[in-house]
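Researcher: We're teaching a course module on how sequence relates to structure. For the next exercise, students receive a sequence and then see the predicted structure as C-alpha cells, so they can try to spot secondary structure elements on their own. Here is the exercise chain.
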Amino acid sequence: MKQSSTNKTYGTAALYCRLSRDDNMDTESNSIQNQKQLLQKVAKEKGYTDTIFFVDDGVTGTTMNRPGFQKMLNAIEAGYISAVLVKDLSRLGRNYIEVGKLTEEFFPMHDVRLIAVSDGVDSDEGDNEFTPFRNIMNEWYAKDISKKRKIVNKLKGNAGIPLSPPPYGYIKNPEDPRFWIIEPEAAAVVKRIYRMALEGHGLNEIAAALQEDGINNPSYYWLSRGTSRSGSKSTLEPTKWGHTTIKKILTLQEYCGDVINFKSYSKSYKIKRRIANPEENRAVFLNVHEPIIDRVTWEKVQALQKGTRRRKPTKSNVPNIFAGRLKCADCGGNLNFHFNQLNPEIKYFSCQSHNSGLRKCTGTHYIRLDFLEQILLSEINRLATFAAEYEDDFLKAIIGLSAKTAESKRQQKKKELAALSARDKELDMLFERLYEDNVSGKIDDARFSKMSKRYEEEQGEIQKKLKLLRQELKKLESRHVDVDDFLQSIRRYRNVTEITPRMVGELIDHIDVYQAEKSEGIHTQRIVIHYNCIGQFAVPSAKNIPETNIVVETRKGVAVSNSPERSA
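Model: And here is the predicted structure for the students to work with:
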C-alpha cells in the first residue's frame, strides 16, 4: 500500500542491507545485524510500522545484479513499497551512474521516499546537493579497494600463497588457512577418478560409476560442509556428475602438490567475468602442499587425455587410442586416423601433411591399425619379458636412458633459450644503432618509426617465448622420473593379448612411422617406439628373446612386414 501525502504513518518501508568484502575496513559497524537494528529503529521513528527486509550478504556493491536488491526493485515496481531505508548510500551500490539513476529517476518516478541514515539523506526533506558527490566517492572507494586488493594478491601470488580456494580433495589448513591440506573423503574420490582414467574408462563412464555409487558431486560436497561454490545447484541431483567436472579434475595440476596462481584475470573491477590468463603469465610453484596424485601418474593421465578429444563419429565407431601419438618420421607431423569408405573394417593412419593437399610431405606413411597393434603387442611383450628375466640389466639400461632422455630435452630447451636470448640482445643493439642513425640524420623519422615498431614487436614475441621456455625448463629440471614405477607398469603387461588405452597412456610417449620401402618385391615398414620416461629402447639381441615376424596384407597382392629396432 502506498504512503499518502496526508498521513506519513501508512505504507510499507523496504529496509535494505548489504555487506561484502568491500566493507572489510569496517566489518563490525556494517554487519547485517547492525544494519537491521539501525534501520528498524529509524523506520519506527519515521512512522513506518510495516517493514520488510531485503538482504544481500557477501555481494559486492559494484554490481547492481544482486538477488535481494532486484527483489526490492520488483516490489517497488509492483507498487508495494513507499519508502526505502539504507544505512548509507553505498549500501545501494558503488556505481555512481546506476545509483544516480535510482535516486534521481527511479525512486521519484515510483513515489518512493529514500532515507540514507548515516549520510543524512531524506528525499522528503528536499534534494541533497551532496548526494551525487557521495555516490562518486562510494564508487571511488570500491575502485581503491580493488586496486589495493590486486596489489596484495600480486604479492601473495608471487610468494606461492594460493589465491584460489582449495579444489575438491583439499581444504584450508586450520593452522594456516593460507595453505591447503588433504581432505580424505574427497581425496579418495579423486584417486578413484585418476585410477579409472588410467584403466581406459571414458569421462561419461567415470561419471556414471560415481553416480551409481551415490557419491555427492563437488557442488553438493561443498554445500554439505557449509561452503558455497560456483556452479549450478538447482538443476543437479546431489549424486549427478557431469563429464566436464571429471575432465576438470583430471587436468588440475594442483593435485600434484603444486600451486598455480594468476590463472585468470578481470579487465575491470566492474566486470566480474574472468578471462583465462596465458600460461606464460601464470606463476607456478611446485610441491607446496601434499599431493593427492603422484606426478608420474598425473603426467600419464595428461598424455592419455590428449587422445580423448571429442571427434565427429565415424562409421567404424572405434575409439582411436593412438591419436596424437603417431608421428611422421620424415616431416614430424601427426598421422591422422581414417577408415576405408568401402570397407569400414579397414582402419589406417596416414601423414596429415601429405593429405592436406599441399603435399608438404612426400610420402603417405600409410600404416594399418591392425598391423600397428600387432607390432606394438609384440614389442611390449618382448620388453616385459626382458624386464622380468633380466631385471638388473633392464634397470641399468632404463636408468641411463631416462637420464639421457631428460638431459636431451633440457639441452634442447637451453639451446632454444640461448638462441632467443642472443637475438634479444641483438635487437637491443640494432635499436640503439637505429636511434643513433635517426639522430644523426642518416634515416628519417618515418623510416625510424617503421623499423623500431618492427623490432619492438619481434622483441615482444621473444620475451613471451623466453618466459615460456624458462617455465618449461624449470618443470623439466624438477620432473621426477620413477624408474620403479615404469618397471612395475611394464611387468603388468607381460603376455598381454590386446592393446588398451591404459597401456598406451602408461607406456607410450609417441611412435615414429616411416614410409614403407620395397626391396626385391617385399614391402618393409619401420616404426620406432618412444616409451614414457626412457624414450627409444630396443631389446638387446644378445638376450635371445624371440621376435615375431609380422606380415599384413594391406591390399590385394601387397603385403607389409615390420622392421624392428635392434641393439647389441
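Model: If you want an answer key for the exercise: Confidence is low (pLDDT under 50) at residues 1-9, 309-319. The CA atoms of residues 213 and 239 lie 8 Å apart.
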